[in-house]
């Protein structure tokens, strides 16, 4: 695995909701080709952090650098256009549409703005993408997404984020609702994203999973970064200690 | 040979599990034909079928709009009244004010489009449920319709362009020519699809299934033309309806606009997250739905040769929504096809016409139509929960 330059960097990011300091002085950098796990107890600020990086909510202070430049996202579309893809827990797939239609939703291929959809071009690209990602479990691409299993749907959601050629992919609890075998498949897929040179951020509650998939573990506690571990140097006890605050690492 | 049987089996299974399948409604039509034909052998006569189809062209046009509304997960309860109001405006301008038929129709359609725009505006701008907005519309536009017809109450339509909309029939040869052109276009589109998939190196679709589909369609269309030709022939209104529905079907299945409609109905949140302009698409569909209702109203007035304060009232609205749902459109959004409107309108028409032939009273007709609607909605709900379980 080759880790490249910094693609996403948060510098002293703050966010308050009323009297609550959701995030204060957050520093976080994500390198191309690495998997960063974001862990912390409920209310530690993980989701807020992802929403800020995804342009869903603006930070109150601090800077976001993306691909070497300071960016100011006015909305989620700005972040998507810049190259940040987010995969939310609810996946947001259209059950009534086919695998292909879901993957290209909102960016369908047309020969010109007024042409009909170019189904063939889209299908070819989907087949190419799925074989690149080495996901064998999705055989038919004109099948409706509603009839797929949870793991297959997660795979579709991840594959969809790749259609826009993102540099950073943020995943919110990607394995929360999955069975054991499906979990393994999705973790492998996350690893493959990093191998493609994408910077990956994974929010997770499952510590063994975090240690398995990530290169670095960033621990949030009460809106602050309390630890930034190299995964290879730590045990699950260290992570738990940082999450609960029973031991200080900074 | 066993390979062919296998591929037909697969096609059959896909049909049953597909989002929109003509199979249930097709079987209902077949079933109703057999019952009514065995009870009264005039049911499938050319004369009765011609009558039945022309009776139901206005309903099918309005139901096409209802399908589009249901696809985005909305409902328009004002379509009946909108059809009556627009017809009243058109006939009143044409007959009372002496305007030309085409300019009268243009004004009627513009009014219809503006009503759709207003419904869409209130639903998207203030986030109101569409059934409330259109229920308010139902009352409002009925009041406006009464005002338009105030002086007379009823306006009769003399011979002219508007009355000829429903009374024009194609010659026998023209009927066959039209059927062959339609089948030719269908065959070309299948071949074109095969060619494009081959060029893109994609897995070819089943040849047998395509041949089977084409053959079934050809037998039905040519058989229908033959039956109708034994009487007055194929009506121009029916041709108009088929052209309109074919175009809208193409738009919903093959264009970005259509894909957006299905996405909004399937998962609104997902659609807006990928940047689809949900408000614009919704408003467009409200406008399209109201336009189709207006067209339906104009054809209905052409058939009755009059407009009155009753136009667009009675059970027209419920039949339009029933036709859409019986045809296989989901009430929960995102599943269905505009062909459902025609097929569902035929089921509603079959029941009504068949029971007329057997001189049932209108009470029984209402009860039977209601039960069929209930069955259709139940099937829809069961299919949807099956989706959920597998998802």
Can you give a write-up of this model?
The complex is a heterodimer of chains A (250) and B (391). Chain A is built from eight helices and ten strands. With 250 residues, chain A is an alpha/beta fold. In chain A, β4 (61-66) and β5 form a beta hairpin. In chain A, α5 (150-163) runs parallel beside α6. Chain A is globular, with a radius of gyration of 18 Å. Chain A starts with 5 loop residues before the first strand and ends in a 6-residue tail after the last helix. Chain B is globular, with a radius of gyration of 21 Å. Helices cover 77% and strands 2% of the residues of chain B. The chains are: A alpha/beta (250), B mainly alpha (391). At the A-B interface, α2 and α4 of A face α8, α11, α12 and α16 of B.
Topology:
The complex is a heterodimer of chains A (250) and B (391).
Chain A: E1 6-17, E2 20-31, E3 35-40, H1 46-53, E4 61-66, E5 69-71, H2 76-82, E6 84-87, H3 99-103, H4 119-132, H5 150-163, E7 168-172, H6 180-195, E8 199-203, H7 207-213, E9 216-221, E10 224-230, H8 236-244
Helix pairs in contact in A: 5-6
Chain B: H1 2-17, H2 23-39, H3 46-71, H4 79-96, H5 101-126, H6 130-148, E1 154-156, H7 161-167, H8 172-199, H9 207-229, H10 236-254, H11 256-266, H12 268-273, H13 278-304, E2 306-308, H14 316-326, H15 339-357, H16 362-390
């Amino acid at each position: 695995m080759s880790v490249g330059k910094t693609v996403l960097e948060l510098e002293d990011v703050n966010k308050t909701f009323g009297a609550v300091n959701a995030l204060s002085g957050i520093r976080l950098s994500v390198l191309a080709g690495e998997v960063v796990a974001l862990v912390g107890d409920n209310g530690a600020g993980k989701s807020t952090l992802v929403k800020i990086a995804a342009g869903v909510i603006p930070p109150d202070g601090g800077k976001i650098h993306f691909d070497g430049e300071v960016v100011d996202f006015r909305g989620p579309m700005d972040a998507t256009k810049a190259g940040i893809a987010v995969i939310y827990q609810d996946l947001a797939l259209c059950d009534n549409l086919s695998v292909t239609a879901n993957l290209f939703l909102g960016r369908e291929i047309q020969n010109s703005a007024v042409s009909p959809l170019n189904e063939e071009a889209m299908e070819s690209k989907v087949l190419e993408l799925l074989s690149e990602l080495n996901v064998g479990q999705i055989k038919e691409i004109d099948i409706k997404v509603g009839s797929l299993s949870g793991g297959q749907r997660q795979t579709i959601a991840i594959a969809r984020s790749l259609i826009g050629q993102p540099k950073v992919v943020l995943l919110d609890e990607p394995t929360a609702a999955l069975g054991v075998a499906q979990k393994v498949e999705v973790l492998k897929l996350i690893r493959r994203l990093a191998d493609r040179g994408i910077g990956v951020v994974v929010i997770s509650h499952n510590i063994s999973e975090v240690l398995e998939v990530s290169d670095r573990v960033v621990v949030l506690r009460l809106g602050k970064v309390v630890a930034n571990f190299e995964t290879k140097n730590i045990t699950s006890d260290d992570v738990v200690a940082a999450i609960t605050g029973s031991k200080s690492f900074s | 040979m066993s390979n062919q049987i296998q591929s037909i089996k697969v096609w059959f299974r896909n049909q049953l599990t597909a989002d929109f399948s003509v199979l249930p409604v097709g079987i209902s039509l077949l079933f109703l034909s057999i019952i009514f034909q065995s009870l009264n052998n005039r049911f499938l006569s050319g004369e009765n079928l011609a009558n039945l189809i022309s009776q139901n062209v206005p309903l099918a046009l309005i139901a096409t709009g209802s399908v589009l509304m249901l696809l985005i997960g909305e409902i328009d309860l004002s379509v009946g009244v909108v059809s009556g109001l627009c017809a009243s405006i058109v006939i009143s301008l044409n007959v009372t004010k002496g305007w030309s038929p085409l300019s009268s129709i243009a004004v009627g359609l513009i009014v219809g489009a503006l009503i759709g725009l207003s419904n869409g505006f209130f639903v998207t701008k203030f986030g109101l449920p569409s059934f409330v907005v259109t229920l308010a519309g139902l009352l409002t536009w009925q009041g406006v319709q009464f005002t338009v017809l105030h002086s007379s109450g009823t306006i009769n339509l003399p011979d002219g362009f508007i009355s000829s909309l429903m009374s024009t029939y194609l010659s026998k040869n023209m009927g066959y020519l039209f059927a062959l052109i339609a089948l030719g276009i269908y065959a070309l589109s299948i071949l074109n699809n095969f060619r494009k998939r081959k060029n893109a190196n994609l897995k070819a679709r089943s040849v047998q299934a395509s041949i089977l589909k084409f053959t079934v369609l050809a037998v039905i269309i040519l058989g229908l033309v033959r039956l109708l030709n034994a009487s007055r022939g194929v009506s121009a209104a029916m041709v108009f309806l088929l052209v309109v529905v074919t175009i809208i079907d193409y738009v919903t299945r093959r264009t970005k606009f259509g894909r957006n409609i299905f996405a909004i109905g399937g998962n609104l949140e997902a659609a807006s997250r990928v940047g689809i302009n949900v408000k614009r698409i919704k408003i467009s569909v409200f406008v399209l739905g109201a336009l189709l209702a207006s067209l339906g109203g104009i054809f209905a007035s052409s058939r009755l040769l009059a407009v009155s304060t009753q136009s667009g009232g009675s059970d027209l609205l419920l039949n339009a929504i029933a036709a859409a749902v019986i045809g296989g459109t989901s009430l929960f959004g995102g599943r269905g096809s505009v062909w459902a409107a025609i097929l569902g309108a035929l089921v509603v028409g079959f029941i009504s016409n068949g029971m007329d032939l057997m001189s049932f009273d209108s009470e029984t007709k209402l009860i039977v139509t209601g039960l069929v609607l209930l069955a259709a909605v139940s099937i829809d709900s069961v299919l949807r929960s099956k989706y959920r379980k597998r998802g």
